[in-house]
Amino acid sequence: MTKPHFLHPAIRKTTFIKLSSFLILMTILKLANAATPQELIAKYEGISSKASPSNGQTFFTTKHGKEWSCSSCHDKVPNHETNHIVTNKVIKPMSPNINAARFTDEAKVEKWFRRNCNDVVGRECTAQEKADVISWLITVR
């Protein structure tokens, strides 16, 4: 009886090489998407102007014509876990000083800014608003 073709050593080796290459590529892409809060601020400042922590705090704690502000779910001092105002889902601290995972994945940061800014401001946040908010959040202890 002959062995199935996928057990042939040459096919196993080729499959192993392809799978290894794919995993390495995915790791590289994930690392390429890694960020720090300071890198994100610099990126946003590059298409706006210098970040203002005080403007960021004001933006975060103020309603902008809609029902909520950022602090409705994240609290006025976002250095502890809170709960979403509607879903009651636990939200980890926004301050990167308390939650080291905050603002380390650019795609995730963009996703949440897009979603939450729509709820709070009724539109996407500007690069200036993002820079201001992150620059304030890195001061929160």
What do these coordinates show?
It is built from six helices and two strands; from the N terminus they run ααααββαα. The chain is mainly alpha-helical and 141 residues long. It has one domain (37-137): Cytochrome c-like domain (Cytochrome Bc1 Complex, Chain D, domain 2). Strands 1-2 form a two-stranded antiparallel sheet. α2 (37-46) packs antiparallel against α6. The radius of gyration is 21 Å and the shape is elongated.
What is the β-strand count?
2
Q: End-to-end distance, in Å?
A: 69 Å
What name is given to the CATH topology? Cytochrome Bc1 Complex, Chain D, domain 2
Look at the structure and name the CATH superfamily. Cytochrome c-like domain
The gross shape turns out to be elongated
Mean pLDDT: 88
What's the CATH architecture name?
A: Orthogonal Bundle
How many structurally independent domains?
1
Highest CATH level, the class? Mainly Alpha
Please indicate the percent range of residues in DSSP E strands (runs of 2 or more).
under 5%
Number of helices: 6
Q: SS-based structural class?
A: mainly alpha
